[in-house]
Specification:
The chain has 23 helices and 20 strands. The chain is an alpha/beta fold.
Length: 765
């Protein structure tokens, strides 16, 4: 458990020069197992029979158990919160001092109640056994009466046979505070620094005695080691957890447990933080423990018994509530991905009713008044939702943006197939095609024809949900909210439409609107908070209706300035992408947790005219605009250029979010050639269509000395960047009066194809 002042971080960091940084060192020679170090302690109670309590059908241990939460007292309300979030397991202390307050006296009311609550909620129960009563404390290397502890363990194992999933034997014996003063006032202990750290062999002896007693009376139950406190300190008050574990294994601990319990705290760092951060104190410590087990040839699973981030601004590294939510979520993802030997992960903790300054409260998923924190909702979405598979699997990254309907003009369904045949040539088998669908055109029969063509031609469709274009004002209408300023009505319509389609692919890709930082995409004036609310409501409705949906955000325009309180020359307002994201998060801190992938509009400079090696970071503020939350990115991170998604991922990381798979659903260059001389997408000197084809080749593959006149460096080729899942240039087939310089197909005003531009030919190679 986490308690006030327990690690004294400053002291830990000052003492990290102890030489225990996890580097390779000779393994100590193994000694005879000390599971029997103390033998079987004599006791009149050892052979006594404790009648098992009567419960409903026992809960059997599930291996692997996936997600647990640590409680301080499991009541009905706490159990209801645990199941609502999606946890399947509870870890709960059965305090020795409370259950066995005097020699030979056992008080079972509280423990019986907690077992019954767990069973009624369908939760597996893992029980930790420590916190000795005052009558059992004693001086010595083992600071409690071991015979009495063995009797206590025996009594618990007998009474709850078949109803407990696992027992944890003690807590953090590498801290003097937990070994010598378990269950005491830890703040007082830290001030006095009395007691001692356990000798690892002594702890193994205690573990062995408990293991023997438990297995005798409940052979099927699992025995878990105490989680060690992650620390680099070696002093009278603490011992480096890695050294302690090595000494345990050298003393034969592997004979005395089924599961290695570990405590994996983040120390305020993002779960992906490098091992060097905080002198190795972070989530990556799991990898070191895994390596130590392998060095000693011990093949046992690990359970993370405590994982947490505190929002309490006390002596330990703290995070914001939004970071607590995103860091916990990212930690669960990383553990599952990077350390398969971990079978169970436990969030510390689920407690309410404590003072805000109480350290227990700082780690909780609940506020002191019992209301959920952002981490509660984030984990509920993560653990209760169906598992997300790899996004929209295709053999490669290529895609193309379609304009069968651009919101103002639609090509007749009769010519759709002829256009899609060229899309198939460009993107290959199961390549991506992105198509807009308006909210006033959710015609399942019409759009099923498009989906069926994708199935026939083996294309992966992604539908961009849109509102309706207002031709009088020349902008897209904002989505209509309900009376409470939510979007449940429109969200339900979108969900019914998406679930009515017969998709040709396992995952169903959906983009939620387009470039909402533009005034002309949101009724003349962007509204970051409203778009965040829309994203949350629609994503939740889609996911509830269709477990296979894959949610992408509206791509933001990185070239858009922030016009402040004064409109642009066209009378509309705009927000720069960073300000827009910051204001979304300010309104709804967990908004981006509703996404499965990140949609980026990573256009080249010019805009849309310069080579891929030309990139820059720039934010344009006009009039009185500013952003107090602006963060200058590291060198080499650009928001404008073909790798603009790198800045967007950087920005997401500043919110504590893990990197999402990137879908570039708009990018590309405009070309000088056109079938419509008065096309509306001109306005500057444009490169030739052949040059555009070469630029696309460079952006995809790099130069590799194939174009001697152009640079070799300055960008990351899309095909070599593992973060990028899809690249879909804009666009194949728009109405030539508006998109003549952008199109890849040479079209007339009726949509008939007269030829293709070099980009499509080059792409199709």
């Amino acid at each position: 458990m986490r308690r006030g002042g327990r690690w004294l971080l400053l002291g830990v960091l000052l003492l990290c020069l102890s030489g225990s940084e996890g580097r390779a060192r000779p393994l100590p020679m193994p000694i005879l197992s000390t599971c029997d170090r103390f033998g079987r302690p004599p006791s009149a109670l050892a052979a006594a029979t404790h009648q098992p309590a009567t419960f409903a059908t026992p809960i059997t241990a599930k291996r692997p158990m996936y997600y647990a939460v640590h409680t301080l007292f499991l009541d009905e309300l706490t159990a209801a919160h645990a199941t609502a979030i999606g946890f399947d397991t509870i870890i709960q202390v059965f305090p020795w001092r409370d259950l066995n307050p005097a020699p030979g006296l056992y008080v079972w009311e509280a423990s019986d109640y907690m077992v019954q609550v767990a069973q009624a909620a369908g939760l597996h129960l893992v029980v930790r056994l420590d916190m000795p009563p005052e009558w059992a404390r004693q001086a010595g290397a083992v600071p409690f009466d071991l015979a009495a502890y063995a009797d206590f363990v025996t009594a618990v194992a007998q009474r709850y046979r078949g109803t407990i999933a696992a027992y944890v034997i003690w807590n953090e014996p590498n801290l003097a505070a937990e070994w010598s003063r378990s269950g005491g006032n830890l703040e007082d202990h830290w001030r006095r620094f009395d007691g001692q750290v356990a000798d690892p062999a002594d702890y193994v002896g205690v573990l062995g005695v408990a293991y023997q007693r438990i297995k005798t009376h409940d052979p099927a139950v699992l025995v878990v080691t105490a989680g060690l406190a992650p620390t680099n300190e070696n002093s009278p008050r603490a011992r480096d957890d890695r050294d302690f574990l090595r000494a345990m294994l050298a003393a034969g601990a592997a004979d005395c447990f089924d599961v290695l319990g570990v405590h994996a705290y983040g120390f305020g760092q993002h779960p992906e933080a490098a091992e060097a951060v905080q002198s190795g104190l972070g989530l990556a410590r799991i990898g070191e423990w895994q390596t130590i087990l392998a060095q000693y040839g011990v093949d046992r699973p690990m359970w993370v018994k405590e994982l947490g981030y505190t929002i309490g601004q006390g002596s330990q590294p703290w995070v914001t509530p939004a970071q607590q939510a995103s860091y916990l979520s990212a930690a669960l993802d990383r553990i599952q991905h990077d350390w398969p030997s971990v079978e169970l992960v436990t969030v510390w903790n689920l407690v309410y009713g404590r003072a805000p300054e109480d350290e227990m409260s700082g780690y909780s998923l609940l506020n002191p008044d019992g209301s959920p924190r952002p981490a509660y909702e984030r984990l509920r979405q993560q653990l209760s939702a169906p598992p997300i598979n790899h996004p929209l699997p295709t053999p490669h990254k290529l895609g193309i943006h379609l304009l069968l309907d651009d919101g103002r003009h639609a090509w007749p369904v009769s010519i759709w197939r002829s256009h899609l045949v060229y899309a198939r040539q460009a993107v290959g088998e199961w390549g991506y095609v992105i198509q807009l669908v308006r909210m006033d055109d959710l015609d399942v029969d019409r759009w099923q024809q498009f989906i069926d063509l994708c199935a026939e031609l083996q294309l992966t469709p992604i539908l961009r949900l849109a509102t309706r274009y207002d031709t009088e004002n020349n902008w897209w209408l904002p989505p209509p909210p309900d009376a409470d300023n939510h979007y449940h009505t429109l969200a339900a319509r979108y969900a019914q439409f998406i679930t009515s389609l017969q998709w040709p692919t396992e995952r169903h890709g959906v983009i939620l609107l387009n470039e909402p930082n533009h005034g002309d995409e949101w009724g003349g004036a962007p509204d970051p908070a409203a778009y965040a609310r829309f994203l949350i409501d629609v994503a939740d409705a889609l996911r509830a209706a269709d477990p296979d949906v894959f949610i992408l955000n509206a791509g933001l325009d990185p070239y858009t300035p922030h016009t402040g309180s004064t409109p642009f020359a066209n009378g509309q307002y705009y927000r720069d992408a960073e300000s827009f994201m910051d204001e979304m998060v300010a309104a709804y801190p967990h908004v981006f947790s509703h996404l499965d992938g990140w949609n980026s509009h990573s256009y080249p400079l010019g805009p849309f005219t310069e080579g891929p090696w030309q990139q820059e970071f720039q934010v344009d503020w006009m009039h009185d605009a500013s952003n107090p939350h602006h963060i200058q990115p590291p060198a080499g991170i650009y928001n404008r250029g073909v790798n603009g998604y790198e800045w967007e991922l950087f920005k997401l990381a500043t919110y504590g979010l893990p990197a999402l798979p990137v879908f570039i659903t708009e990018t590309g260059w405009r070309h000088a050639e056109t079938t419509e001389p008065d096309a509306g997408d001109n306005g500057r000197v444009l490169p030739s269509a052949l040059t555009v084809a070469h630029y696309l080749d460079l952006a995809l593959n790099g130069n590799n000395h194939r174009y001697p006149a152009w640079p070799e460096t300055g960008w990351t080729p899309w095909l070599t960047d593992s973060r990028v899942v899809a690249v879909a240039p804009f666009a194949l087939n728009g109405r030539p009066e508006e998109w003549g310089h952008t199109n890849w197909l040479q079209l007339d005003s009726e949509g008939r194809i007269s030829g293709v531009y070099p980009a499509l030919e080059w792409w199709a190679k």
